[in-house]
Fold:
Amino acid sequence: MKKDHSLPILIGAWILIYLAFAVAKPGVFFSLSNVEQLVRQSLVIGLGALGITYIIVAGGIDLSAGSVVALATVTGAMTLDQTGSVGAAIGACLLTGLVCGLLNGVLITRLGAGPFIVTLVSMLALRGVAKGISGEKPVYPEAPQWIGQLTGALTAENRWMIIPPGGWIWVVCTAAFAWALRYTTFGRNVVAIGSNEAAARVCGVQVNRVKVATYALGGAMFGLAGLMLLSRTRTGDMSSAMGAELSMIAAAVIGGASLSGGQGNLVGASVGALVMATINMGCNTVGLSNWVQEILTGVIILVAVAVDRLRARQLSVAG
Amino acid sequence: MLRAHGLSLAFGATLALQDVSFSAPAGRVLAVIGENGSGKSTLLKILAGELRPQAGQVEWNDQPLRPGDDQVLLVHQELALCPDLTAAENIFLGRIPGPRYSPAQLQDRAHALLSGMGFPEIPAAGPTRTLPISQRQILEIARAEARDAPVILLDEPTSSLTQADKQKLYDLIRTLKARGRTILFVSHFLEEIREVADDVVILRDGVKVAEGQIGDFTDADIVRHMVGRNVDDFFPRSDRTRGECLLTIENLTGTDDMPHQASLQVHRGEIVGVAGLNGAGRTELLRTIFGLREIKSGQVQVKNLASLSPRAHWRTQTGFVSEERKLDGVATDLSVAENITLPRRQGFLNRPAEGRSVAQRWIDELGVKCKDPDQPLQDLSGGNQQKVAFARLLHAECDLFLLDEPTRGIDVGSKIELYAQMDAAAQRGCAILMTSSYLPELQGICDRIAVMNRGRLVAIHDGRTVDSATLMADSIQ
Structure:
């Protein structure tokens, strides 16, 4: 049996990209505070990429992720504004995501309309809901200190943390999600459905229930991403996270997810988010324009897909 | 004892199954035979609980079967495995103990199960997509064993297996039989049915037309029951006159050494068959000739033109029928008419009316069973889809036919029709190069039979006189 080396290759590629920028701009890139900065920038996309990877592995897609993130910042900010309770705000963000995900999942499985269409609809509609409940204005809540610290720059006495608490939440989530996909029955059922839905159904896997669970789980992660965004901007902004779903999908694909389902790597997805943030940050530091960044990001995704195809060809023996 | 009482099911106006009753005792193998569309698959799906009959019921040991209690397990023709899961996970899919489970433990259980079935060599830990198709099939049967299902239904289990793998499967069926399993076996191959089955039920148009012990039926009886008429000229062979050479290949070597240094000539007025095991390179040979695979060295000359693309081949009256009907044989979303006219579209505009009228001619000529030329091809049975794929060549007025397993997995009636069409084409001076895994068919209609073995064309025999043993020996040496 051939071994799958794509994750080490991806991490190696990321380090190379990082080093390239470090050489171009020494001093700035070789510092812990730069790592911290990188994590802060990739956190929202990275958390969302974990959720969307589960959805993609099960053979689905979620285009509403960005809208859910924005809606979660709005509901979180409004809850914070009205109750002043951080716990309630966190709950509101997660619950918003969970409910949106459940709604997507139920519509997809009940309607049988295909995840692309259903989540395209919810992408538009949920953005509308966010605008409606916030009165088309950003919400600036009275935020206590520590909600900002979740993703904020570390103070001198907190230096030992290396990355902000939000970053650690991301690390833990990545590990937990990766473990769950490999070592739980739920995770294997997700792979089974994305791999061959009919076969899974024949074998008695509760296909619809598992699918709804992936969208709900994904939704909760988008809610969590919304919380992080709220922490960073301290604003409930209905027009934030525009197009974030595409960045999350890109991170998942760079990480090794196949849009035809059955394949995906959670650690890869998180590294994918870091790769994109590295390019973004590196180009800014070196002084390259935005359009160069965009082309570079596109090329990286293309390379990731090409590497994945080559690997697939190597792994399959008889086709 | 599995018992079916008066099973009936209609899809719209079509009676798929009409009052079918039979019983299958434990420890015996029951073969279910019939043409495609005779109701075999419907019957199996009802037994497996995937379809509900409109009348009748199924009993196991005098208890009515309920769906979901796993007494009956159907091994699908289109394999129902998840390529991204490991072999062990596929075997226990839906039954993996959870929420946490140990892959190592599951693999041990899978390995023990597979060893007990006589297949210790199948790796339980690797992803299923890397396993050869023969081993994947075993996994599906292992799935039934893992659930301790007393009844196992095998739907054309050998359609994609090599001879050696078939033998292993027969051995496995005997093992299961000895364990007291009830086995239902669907197949198109009579030899195979004689090899493993004890009893037989024959279906035609959804009705049971005969049943009994296999030993009480001759091959001719079985075919007569299946098609409902006497088949005198199963393999037609009219007088053919060999004419000019249309296809010459010389030292042809393709990608991955398939084929390897193959040389062959095919003339007008002859049918040349290519025999060999699966993986011997027969498909690759035809696809290389038709320009679907790269030529590494050597030459392909079709009507004195070298190395043509598929498009150029169609334009010079050379046609190809693919082995993989669903993959690149036919476009199942398109209509019958569009499929037939696909290689020979002219002009910029699509003229549906014109397409329909020419298609109707071929529908009548080949006896394609369809509502009208506009019907999407996916509604047709495999045999009728294959007739449409063949009609393409007639419509394009081809005189060189490259046919890759043209009769694979289709019913006897459609086979007979295709044999007659091929014979007629050869008689009017067309050249035909065909592959087949079914030796009697090659011996029945071919003038010459070439044997392929690991990419090489090792021998060419006279199709009328060569015996199966010689062909088999050439294939495996």
The mean pLDDT of chain A is 89. Chain A touches chain B through 26 residues (CB under 8 Å).
